[in-house]
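User: Let's play a game. I give you a shape written as tokens, and you guess the letters that built it. Ready? Here's round one.
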């Protein structure tokens, strides 16, 4: 009788061990799928932010003209009316917050560094964007500030 009890106990232990291994494998698979879903949702959210910004610019004639002047980089903040300057600065500020969001997502491993290839750095290299950064840059995360300045000032023209 003891022989059968030992045999049954070993079988139960083996089955239990196999169950644990299979369960851990399943949990690992679920975590991987969840991580992929989070990455996808984050990319979609960032794309939505860009589209919202683009739609706002394209549907607002005044803002469209201002951005056009800004992108030609032949205008400085002090050459604008206070209203126009504020509109462009808030547009740039919103974009800077979007880049900071990408930075934070990269830092925690949700996105990879390639996400910065899609932020449109030319926009942030203009005179007005630089003026805006000089005003509001200090309100961003202390680790983001040098990162952004390095990204903005890099030779890459993306």
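Assistant: Ready! My guess for every position:
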């Amino acid at each position: 009788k003891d022989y059968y009890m030992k045999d049954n106990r070993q079988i139960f232990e083996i089955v239990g061990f196999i169950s644990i291994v299979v369960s851990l494998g399943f949990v690992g698979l679920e975590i991987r799928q969840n991580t992929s879903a989070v990455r996808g949702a984050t990319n979609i959210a960032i794309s939505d932010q860009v589209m919202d910004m683009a739609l706002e610019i394209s549907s607002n004639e005044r803002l469209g003209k201002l951005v056009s002047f800004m992108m030609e980089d032949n205008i400085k903040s002090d050459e604008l009316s206070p209203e126009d300057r504020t509109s462009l600065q808030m547009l740039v500020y919103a974009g800077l917050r979007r880049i900071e969001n990408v930075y934070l997502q990269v830092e925690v491993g949700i996105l990879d560094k390639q996400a910065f290839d899609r932020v449109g750095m030319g926009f942030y290299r203009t005179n007005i964007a630089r003026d805006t950064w000089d005003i509001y840059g200090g309100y961003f995360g202390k680790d983001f500030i040098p990162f952004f300045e390095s990204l903005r000032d890099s030779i890459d023209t993306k």
